[in-house]
Amino acid sequence: MRKQECVAMLLAGGQGSRLGGLTRIRAKPAVSFCGKYRIIDFTLSNCSNSNINTVGVLIQYKPFLLNSYIGLGSAWDLDNPYGGVHILPPFLGEKAGSWYNGTANAVYQNNQFIDFYDPEYVIVLSGDHVYKMDYTLMLKFHKEKNSDITIATLEVPWEEASRFGILSVDEDKRITKFTEKPLEPSSNLASMGVYIFNWSILKQALIADAGDSQSQNDFGQNIIPQQLKQGKRVYAYKFEGYWRDVGTIESYYQANMESLRAGHFLNIFDPKFRIFSNEDILPPHFVGSTAEINNSLVCNGCIVHGKVINSILAPGVFVGKGVQIEDSILLPNVKVHDGSVIVKTIVGENAEIMRHCRIGVEGLLAPKQEGITVIEDNHLVPEGSIIEAGNNV
Amino acid sequence: MSNAIGIIYANTATDSLQGLALERPIAAVPFGGRYRILDFALSSMVNSGIRTIGLVTPHHYRPLLDHLGAGKAWFLDRKDGGLFILPGVFHGLGGNHTFCIKDLQNNMEYLDKDFAENVVISSGDQIFNINFKQALEVHDDKNADVTLIYKEMDNSGELTNEMFFDMDKDQKVSNIQDKKVPGRIKIVQPYFVNMLIIRREILSNILEKYSSIGCMDLIDILIANLEVLKIYGSPTCSLIGTIRTVKDYFDRSMDLLDLGVRGKLWLGADHIHTKIKDNPPTQYTSQAKVSNSLIASGCTIAGEVVNSIIFRGVILEQGCKIKNSIILPKCHIHANAQTDYAILDKSVKVNGENVLKGSSDHPLVVLKRTVI
């Protein structure tokens, strides 16, 4: 063990119920993204690229696939003898134990873990955003401002501002007001859910919060407003760069599809700030003589005999002859057999679509979720099925 | 615990691979979109439960070590066993041995230090995915001193340098025909595929006994001692081929476009491992036209690709035409350039409108980092 300057606490225990079929068997951070990645790759790669090598991953909801994916963290170069990745599930104490009850409570229950590394700073991260960020710059800002708490913020479009935690700041970037999901936002500076705390301040705040039976034990709802009220030095760090929320089917779909556009491709795949992932080593993908691939991303291990347009094929996908795939996202190891047509659909991992199915066809009613169809992980769609757009199967 | 350790001769050199083996041993030549030839021997051993592997390195070993690192991608970064680098002897002209014993005599400690009963020895210039468990079982069942891995000759491939042998009903090798004997008849007969299992102590004894002789081939010693040693054969059908010449390289690469070959090599339970580069997925633009090809990750494809193998991180601009070609990592083909029967080594840049043409018998090889 060695004293660390900054320890990261990564909140990865949420269910992500708004992703429906994609989180039925796995936690949201373990959902596949942009072909070969999983959502948590971005946060872990950010840590790695920012020289933060002690990361506590707080898990709770269906953790097996997430845990096995993270392993020792070696895929992100985080297997470090003096720190490394620690999976932190809820646990029993001498008298009692409890589930993590809110984000702040999860960190509170693991205060011993943080004390073990005796850090100056704790950075709280969430495992369900896709973004590329150098935390060292934010930490530098935190030190320069002699801040107690620093919140990473980002300018969002005004019309969307009421979906976020909105901050008002003075000219020194000190936060004057923080409102979670305001109906009438007074600014468009949104919290990204990334916080740097002085550990001494955070520890006090967590202890106070744990004693408050009215509290929901949430960072955004309770800890931050409470600390502001107490007059702590809370500053807003302005982040500029790639950041996407993938909390809903719609935003997940859009964020994936964006990567097909040339400019965005570089945003995600810029070699100077690499995103690592724990990939299986698969052979190059094979494109058959009847295949046609346009404006798409294709990963290793795929076998393509059909037509693929504006789509993303994750590793190990099979596309049979006469298949047509358009505006869709096929997650790892999906099999689509001969003659099926798939339009604007997210097909879950290991799902199998038998011959001559038609998925994402226009129905009589106006479709839900922007017309995006979702096939659940491991689902088998029988031969000749017809599934209307906007359905969740 | 596995009862075998491995030795891979990664120092086989050749003059017939033209530029491809100029700065690297055959073992380090890139193959199949994302691998190097050595990966096949290394992964086969690891998949067979062998956790201690010694690698006989050639003079030019930088590309090998660059690729291997501590052996992590093959799970060989271990406390118990792992990857061992065995510096090979510097061979002058005419050092045309398969398993030169001098290379091992210089590394006796590797053999003496271990407790394993057997040693699996393989050359590092072949494309295969063989699980040695079966051969190790044969070796144990027969209580053999040496087990030679063979393939039935099928009259399809061109065999030039192979060593044939006869076996009795019990799979015991009764006669080995030296490859140097001319005028042998072409019938269906097992031939040796440069992989064998030998008892560790017997190998140590041989190395000691022949220590006064400079460079001698282990195979020749086995032939000379055929009467004394119990030598058996064990079959395999998962050998794709040996890479010695440009034609070999080209043909074996193109074999990968065949589902049967890919099935044996890649689609079974045993995976071939290689160094991970964490490349993004390959991006196809709306102008891309690809058919019957293997494409690795991290490429950007805007041109036409037919019957070709494209390695990692290749950029093919709009209007370029890649036919029957092998494009190694990080090549950049500019707009409207064409290649046919060409092998482009790493980081070759082909400027717009150029046409590179070879033939199926003589594929054109373009050297590393050439700008055309």
Structural class of chain B: alpha/beta
Terminal CA distance of chain A? 48 Å
Describe the sheet with the most strands of chain A: 9 strands, mixed
The amount of helix of chain B comes to: 10-25%
- What's the helix count of chain B? 9
- Evaluate the radius of gyration of chain B: 21 Å
Specify which chain pair forms the largest interface.
Answer: A-B, 36 and 36 residues
Percent in strands of chain B: 25-35%
Shape of chain A: globular
The tally of strands of chain B reads: 28
Write the SSE topology:
The complex is a heterodimer of chains A (393) and B (372).
Chain A: E1 6-11, E2 32-33, E3 37-38, H1 39-49, E4 54-58, H2 64-70, E5 84-88, H3 103-109, H4 111-117, E6 121-126, E7 129-131, H5 135-144, E8 149-155, E9 165-169, E10 175-180, E11 189-198, H6 199-210, H7 219-229, E12 234-238, E13 243-245, H8 249-258, H9 262-269, E14 285-287, E15 292-294, E16 296-298, E17 303-304, E18 307-309, E19 312-313, E20 318-319, E21 324-326, E22 329-330, E23 335-336, E24 341-343, E25 345-347, E26 352-353, E27 358-361, E28 373-375, E29 380-381, E30 386-388
Parallel strand pairs in A: 1-4, 1-6, 4-5, 8-12, 14-17, 15-18, 16-19, 17-20, 18-21, 19-22, 20-23, 21-24, 22-25, 23-26, 24-27, 25-28, 26-29, 27-30
Antiparallel strand pairs in A: 2-3, 6-11, 7-13, 8-11, 9-10, 9-11
Chain B: E1 4-9, E2 30-31, E3 35-36, H1 38-47, E4 52-57, H2 62-68, E5 82-87, H3 101-105, H4 108-113, E6 118-123, E7 126-128, H5 133-141, E8 146-152, E9 164-167, E10 173-177, E11 190-199, H6 200-209, H7 218-224, E12 231-235, E13 239-242, H8 246-255, H9 259-265, E14 282-284, E15 289-291, E16 293-295, E17 300-301, E18 304-306, E19 309-310, E20 315-316, E21 321-323, E22 326-327, E23 332-333, E24 338-340, E25 342-344, E26 349-350, E27 355-357, E28 364-366
